[in-house]
Amino acid sequence: MIADEVFSGTYVNAEGPQFAGEMWHWGMGELNMIRTTSQQAAVGRRGIDRTEEHLILHLQCRGTSRFRQQGCDASLEPGDFSIGSSHKPYSFDLSAHELLVIEFPKAPLAERVAALDDIVAGRICGASAAGRIFHDFLLSLWRQGGRLLQEDSWEPGMNTVFYDLAAAAIRGSDRNLGDSSRAPHGQALLARAKAYIETELPNPELRTTSIADELDLSVRSVQNLFAGIGTTPMGYVLDRRLARAAERLMADPAASVTEIAFDHGFTDAGYFTRCFRQKFGASPRNWRLGQ
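-> structure tokens emitted (291 positions)
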């Protein structure tokens, strides 16, 4: 199947003996793109094991769909998009539709979006100003594909614009996460979530799914709790790790910066230093010295 040739592991299930659909494909630099139209169908993809993690963006151009991955469930209307991990299985229930699908490396977007893992597998509303600009850019990029491929000098610039606009659309999106943390029951759940996070801060495997499992909630419900206090689950985790690390830097001068980073759930001392400087305005070493 063509879809499997472009995005390996893809499969399509449609009702009836015949399936009607069309697919076009092209790629530019890091961006691998397809545009599909078809009748109502169920589409899925098996997780792909590769060294560098990739994400896959689905822009709903026409029709509706329901995207599922790792316990998350997102319903998309025209203009909306979702971002999933190509490393993990996912499925789509699609009406008669048109989709623009783009696969790309995760790292450049992760550099631009804090706690990106909280966004993955969720609905990104396309109604914001940034969402509409990103939508128009993707459609224009598709239309100009043949011309851009003939001019190699466009590639780096267009890839950079893609990541910048995707990050802006994510940050500007009203993802309708609700305000459930303000209700008494929500406050109790939030307190439980925070207490669990405090005990698990040293664990580098701590994820939103871990918190959801502990509270016996869906991932979306956990995201709702933290949206009510203006953050995401992993954004809160990062803030608490940095705060605890800052305390340790002052209280334990014999401990190295790398040791403190690893003791608080970081697996990369360089990443810890960048996050620390962004939050406190000083490197861990200068913070310890009071500079």
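The chain has a mean pLDDT of 83.
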